[in-house]
Specification:
- By secondary structure, the chain is mostly beta strands.
- The protein has one domain.
- 10% of the residues lie in helices and 38% in strands.
- It has one helix and seven strands, in the order αβββββββ.
- Strands 1, 2, 3, 4, 5, 6 and 7 form a seven-stranded antiparallel sheet that branches.
- A hairpin with a 2-residue loop joins strand 4 and strand 5.
- It starts with 7 loop residues before the first helix and ends with a strand.
């Protein structure tokens, strides 16, 4: 049987794969989501459950007056969280 010892590297790797926090549907508000055509590059502040928020490059997929649906690649994983509108800025 192999070792069950948890190394710092393995722990860091596991925590890095935890998905970002996404806003629940009730937070989206009454306005429908308007879906974008084409690519809209953005910077997005992403909240994580077990570590500080990070600013990541991403693509906005849709939005309303409260939230933005984004697509991000972080550490080799692809995520599509829903974030507050003020957490997103256009990437130039």
């Amino acid at each position: 049987m192999g070792s069950v010892k948890v190394t710092a590297g393995k722990l860091e790797e596991t925590l890095a794969r935890v998905p970002p926090v996404t806003l629940p549907t009730p937070a989206w508000g009454p306005q429908p989501i308007g879906w974008f055509t084409g690519t809209r590059p953005v910077w997005v502040w992403v909240s994580w459950r077990d570590r500080p928020a990070t600013r990541e490059p991403g693509v906005a997929r849709g939005a309303n007056d409260r939230v933005v649906m984004v697509s991000i690649d972080v550490g080799g994983d692809h995520w599509e969280p829903v974030v507050w509108r003020n957490a997103v800025t256009v990437r130039g």
